[in-house]
Amino acid sequence: MRMILSLSALALGIGLAAPSAAQTVVQLGAAQTSAGSLPVVVAMQQGLFERNGITIERTDFAGGGPAVQALASGSIDVCICAADHAVRLQERGLGGKIIVALGDHHLYAIMAPADSEATDLASLQGLQVGVTSAGGLADNTVRWAINEIDLDPDTDYSIIAIGTGGAMRAAVENRAIAAGTFTTPDIQSNLALGDVYKIVHDFRSIPHAAQGIVVLDSWLEGNEETARQFAASVHEALQMVQADQAVLEEAIAEMFPQFEPALVTQVASDVRDDFLSKDGIVGREAYENMMETVAIADPNVEAVPYEDVVSTEYLP
């Protein structure tokens, strides 16, 4: 679903100075509605993009696979995507780059019905496990974790692409799958339901280049200044979030209007302290963990050096 975001209304609403007349339109794609999108939402709410001469046109996708396909085809300019997609784009000769880190820890957990007999990943052997999309972060991570316990993700499990959010929740609650992958804030929302869900395997403590602003070299070559202004907008949003949690709570309340205030506060605290990047730079440990995940999930993927994928030159 495509929506054109009117940032001028936001700017007027919060009393920012009017932007210059010349605005560059950036086609932004989001792999899913998750914590990784929050710095971008903050930048939009606070009028940072418009102040820097950018108008955002956003398309939301059902997972990382479709989003990165749109990026590769040129349908979008910029993607809020799992960082491993930048690696795969490099392998395809398209020059994927991460110009801003959004999250520096993993954001997924595997959840099952509260009354499920499953207690860990091994106990899901032989059962159906839902991921957002084939080849996405959830899929890669589940396959990596299964390999880590000396099982085979292709023969010992049935891994099924379900989609995000509501689709995954319906599949779990209707027992179409034994367990599914969820991100923050869906994890907190599910747990807030009481005795409905439980966490079977939690990846969130792992430093990981989870999500970032991913672009192609071909776009950077013709839009260097736009890339700098885009990165500066998101970087400032990250700084604002660390300075004042209320800014993040406002973004969460907009993205998830169904959340009660207590849940908004809980999600904001978890995201701010344990997930979001503090400086917009992909950490080397987080990158190495991401590469390990990709390599184990897909042995055909060759290691790509940090410097080939991570670009800090567009940050302030």
From TrEMBL:
Domain of life where this protein originates: Bacteria
Signal peptide annotation: 1-22
Chief location: periplasm
Gene3D superfamilies the UniProt entry points to: Periplasmic binding protein-like II
SUPFAM superfamilies named among the record's database cross-references: Periplasmic binding protein-like II (SSF53850)
Keywords from the named record: Signal
Tagged with keyword Signal: yes
A biological process term (GO) from this entry: alkanesulfonate transmembrane transport
Annotated Gene Ontology cellular component terms: periplasmic space
Protein's cellular compartments: Periplasm
Coiled coil location: none
Family membership: Belongs to the bacterial solute-binding protein SsuA/TauA family.
Protein name as it appears in the record: ABC transporter substrate-binding protein
Lineage: Bacteria, Pseudomonadati, Pseudomonadota, Alphaproteobacteria, Hyphomicrobiales
